[in-house]
Design brief:
Helix content is 11%, strand content 56%. It is mostly beta strands. The chain has a 5-stranded antiparallel beta sheet with strand order 1-22-21-20-19, with no helix packed on it.
């Protein structure tokens, strides 16, 4: 009886081995397949070897602020100057994420739990308010908007002049990104829901994009609303253009994070899964 079973076991082992080889090959392909830009766009590496790169913010002097989203007080904020020098300017943070330039300083959240949102300016750090895993931050120059990557999470508005903290939405499911457009429209993401919503002062919020793969960051620019997917594999950068069409601009990314404008038709993107910042440019027509 045992001898008659041997050929079947051999066949089973061959099938299992082939399936395992196929799976490993596919996993390797997903990991190393290069980022691919849509027609009319091109992508290149801007800076690499930055572990856990996440939030980006560019000031008026050309200095780029970069967060390293490390937990348990190991998180840092780095500054990349126009001449290529990279220096540490703030340490001791827990998953720093969400950054904006605000009134001559830098505001950053911390996703590592119930922690303060910080304002770094003139070499000093000031606590603005406390949130629960604050990830996305946006501003119009007067007030700050923040979203909590928690379950349940909240969409917040903070007035630094009065110290008033207003809850705009609560009960969110892993909110990650928030962006304010020049015309006053406010957008936010819920990662687990796979959608992007437009906040409404009255009535229910409007879903503007859904069926996405872990949408994380949103950024409103003159091109439209940019959306990045915080997925480990096959993440994308999408653009909801001014005509309401959702375009796929970049594919085959690993944990795409913040996208910010660098110049007209040019953007910087943090790709956390590959420890680098990419430069995305629209080709001249």
């Amino acid at each position: 009886m045992s001898w008659s079973l041997k050929p079947y076991w051999r066949s089973a082992l061959v099938v299992i081995g082939a399936a395992l080889t196929l799976y490993l090959s596919y996993s390797e392909w997903r990991q190393f397949y290069p980022a691919t830009a849509a027609t009319g766009w091109e992508v290149q590496v801007y800076r690499d070897q930055i572990p856990m790169v996440s939030a980006l913010a560019l000031d008026g002097r050309g200095d780029l602020y970069i967060s390293q989203e490390l937990s348990s007080g190991k998180g840092k904020i780095l500054k990349l100057t126009a001449d290529g020098r990279l220096t540490e300017i703030l340490a001791g943070l827990s998953k720093p994420d969400g950054q904006v330039i605000f009134r001559g300083g830098l505001v950053t959240g911390q996703e590592g739990g119930k922690l303060p949102v910080l304002w770094l300016r003139n070499g000093e750090t000031e606590t603005l308010f406390e949130g629960n895993s604050v990830e996305g931050i946006a501003t119009d120059g007067r007030v700050l908007y923040a979203i909590e990557d928690a379950r349940p999470g909240r969409l917040l508005r903070f007035n630094p002049d009065s110290g008033e903290l207003t809850v705009l939405r609560e009960g969110l499911d892993d909110g990650e990104g928030v962006s304010l457009c020049p015309d006053g429209r406010l957008f936010y993401t819920e990662k687990r829901k796979g959608w992007v919503k437009q906040w409404q002062a009255k009535g229910p919020d409007i879903i503007v994009a859904d069926g996405l793969n872990a949408p994380g960051f949103v950024q409103c620019t003159s091109d439209g609303l940019w959306i990045t997917e915080d997925a480990t594999h096959l993440a994308r950068v999408l653009l909801l253009d001014t005509g309401g069409k959702l375009q796929v601009i970049l594919t085959h990314l690993r944990s795409a994070q913040t996208l910010i404008p660098l110049a007209a038709g040019s953007y910087l993107l943090a790709e956390q899964g590959r420890k680098r910042i990419l430069k995305l440019e629209q080709r001249p027509t």
